Sequence to fold (379 residues):
Amino acid sequence: MGREEELRTAFGKWEEQGVSRREFLRTCAIAAAAVGLPAWTVGEIAAAAVAGKRPPVIWLHFQECTGCSETLLRASHPAVSNLILDLVSLDYHETLFAAAGKQAEEALQASVRKNAGKFVCVMEGSIPRAEVGAYCRVGGRTAVEIAKDIGGKAGAVIAIGSCASWGGIPSADPNPTGAEGVPRILEGKTVVCLPGCPPNPYNLLGTVLQYATYGTLPALDSLGRPAFAYARTIHEDCPRRPHFDAGRFVERFGDEGHRHGYCLYKTGCKGPRTHAPCSLQQFNEVVGAWPVGIGHPCFGCTEQSLAFRMPLHTTVEIDRPTPPANYPPIHADHGGVSTAAVGVAGLTVGALIGAGAMAAKKLGSSKGEGKGENDKEAK
Ligand code: SF4
Fold:
């Protein structure tokens, strides 16, 4: 089958499911931008996906609520969810798998044997270290054994969600199971961490597509997070930031400031200390679909020092002084957050792609050397 025919067949398959070419390319573009890949990579990523160049993904569950899987499945409409699942070639997923018991275990082992060293292992949930074996056994094996065995044979390991990244809610005091994140279990192995409760699925999609297309992983920070997505705090790019700077705060839920979309800092917003892309990259491809967007303070779900440790409505220390609350109130005609939010969110994809374009020079200059200097190979 020639390349043109391959493309027609692939697009035809997605079009039958209700996904247009435009949507397909848009999904690839958002995924590429989510991990900081420049705009010129979108065509290569799309071509690789169409050509079926997708590593098998084996998705394991440990101690969690399945919310990270849900975030992948809850795109704006079912066809995009199918597209996402198709793009990542999800070969094994305990929640979605039709098989169960011995049959599922055999399928897992068969996939691992067939794709050893090539598959992407996504781990969802924390791993219990207390009284190893007392908690979370699957198929007779402990979570630690499974993580070490399957993770050790993977080409790349991704810890999705805060539970897998650093322990999440199961690690909250008193942490009866001794819950820990995957990096603590697989010491010495590169683990891409995508904290969040849940994380944005496009960070996962971008990481997998980059690995499939270039054999590399995104540049990571000291906590194993894709630096592009987690380098900034929510507060830095929040659409309510002008209200914070002007000293206009929600004092109580439902008050006038809340109705005008003022800053949620005084109701406990953890945005000033939370590293995550939520204010730029919202959920389900729906403008405003994130906590602050719907009028709730950020919970700090990506941060080990905040989430499930600091009470929801306790204010965080910030390293810049809080502007006084006695600034004159914004005029109602100009104060609604919805207009600003729509404007900012409408620019989200453009901003992300624009930032990706800024990274293009660096990636582009090293492309001829085989791997971008920003990229980190899986061990
Ligand atoms: S709502 Fe939260 S993140 Fe947004 S400006 Fe206020 S404190 Fe910062």
About this structure: The first helix runs from residue 3 to 16. The domain at 234-346 is CATH 4.10.480.10 (Cytochrome-c3 Hydrogenase; Chain A, domain 2). Confidence is low (pLDDT under 50) at residues 334-379.
